[in-house]
From TrEMBL:
It is found in: Cell membrane. This is Iron ABC transporter permease. It comes from Halomonas qinghailakensis. InterPro entries: ABC_BtuC-like, ABC_transptr_permease_BtuC. Pfam families: FecCD (PF01032). It is a multi-pass membrane protein. GO terms for molecular function: transmembrane transporter activity. One of its GO terms (cellular component) is plasma membrane. Belongs to the binding-protein-dependent transport system permease family. FecCD subfamily. Keywords: Cell membrane, Membrane, Transmembrane, Transmembrane helix, Transport.
């Protein structure tokens, strides 16, 4: 990479580190910089070490991974559909994952089984949308988008029906999951590893993605294998979204606002946009989750509420600026 690409990435990496440290220090019990430094060295008060290493650090790493996955998936969807308003949930992936998770909650299971059910539901929605959009011929971006919107509407109706028929004692947990919640995110390493591997794999494809963003005919004329690349983008974005939803539930606007904002600031070079989305999306969700657990401490808000409150005015402003 050239210095033009490295400089904004270094700045975003610094912002990400600052957001992580801020998340570790801030909460219902505040920690000073000296206390946090002592904890990082394995020293300090045992209670502070437990609070940081067992509670705040796994949650902050999970938030960073989920935010990065959603932002990268959003950037890929916008390239695939050639639509700056596309986001990871536009194809019904979140609805499929929600159906799986809510079904597991209704049965009464918990933990990994809920995550596994959500992941299975997202993959089922992926294959359903792709199969319906493909039909007996081939799919186009507009056909894929319309199919995803219809499937998402269908999932929404099923979710409403499930909530209406659910026992009252199970409704709070189901609603929190639907709004996006990181309270029970304790295994950040799988999504973090997936985010890292995705960036490693996709960055070399940046030039092909840049050409594809200009249109399939121009990409084919320049020697890009358009159809396999489009399939790869769709599958990758679906897997990233499924992993994110499995970890934290349904969190909106991160995959929509972050890529859109970065393109306005940094241009359309996917070699820069994709790693920048991973860093900026992760930082945004870490800060949003910190705000969610401190605004009304010791009570906590679902992080999806915070991202919506931040995302709606930000996106309207970006839309106004770019008209």
């Amino acid at each position: 990479m050239t210095a033009r690409l490295w400089q904004p990435l270094c700045l975003l990496a610094l912002i990400a580190i600052t957001a992580m440290l801020f998340s570790l220090a801030v909460g219902s019990a505040q920690l000073s910089a000296a206390q946090l430094w002592a904890v990082m060295q394995g020293q300090g008060d045992p209670l502070a070490r437990t609070m940081v290493m067992d509670l705040r650090l796994p949650r902050a790493l999970s938030a960073f991974a989920v935010g990065g996955l959603l932002a990268v998936a959003g950037a890929l969807m916008q390239v695939l559909l050639r639509n700056p308003l596309a986001d990871p949930y536009v194809l019904g992936l979140s609805g499929g994952a929600s159906i799986g998770a809510l079904a597991a909650m209704l049965v009464g299971v918990g933990g990994l089984l809920i995550s596994g059910s959500a992941f299975f539901g997202a993959l089922l929605s992926t294959f359903l949308v792709f199969g319906l959009a493909h039909g007996s011929g081939s799919w186009t971006p507009s056909r894929l988008l319309l199919t995803g919107v219809v499937v998402a509407a269908g999932w929404g109706a099923v979710i409403t029906l499930m909530l209406a028929l659910s026992p009252a004692e199970r409704l709070p947990g189901m609603l929190y999951w639907l709004m996006g919640d990181l309270s029970y995110a304790r295994t950040p390493w799988p999504p973090l590893l997936l985010l890292l591997l995705t960036c490693i794999v996709l960055i070399p494809l940046g030039r092909s993605l840049n050409v594809l963003a200009r249109g399939p005919q121009q990409a084919a004329a320049l020697g890009v294998a358009v159809r396999p690349l489009e399939w790869g983008i769709y599958i990758a974005a679906s897997l990233l979204t499924a992993a994110a939803v499995t970890t934290a539930g349904s969190i909106g606007f991160v995959g929509l606002v972050v890529p859109h904002m970065l393109r306005l600031l940094l241009g359309n070079d996917q070699r820069l946009i994709l790693p920048a989305c991973a860093l900026a999306g992760g930082s945004l969700l870490v800060l949003a989750d910190t705000l969610a657990r401190t605004m009304i401490a010791p009570e906590q808000l679902p992080v999806g509420v915070i991202t919506a409150l931040l995302g709606v005015p930000t996106f309207l402003f970006l839309l106004y600026r770019s008209r």
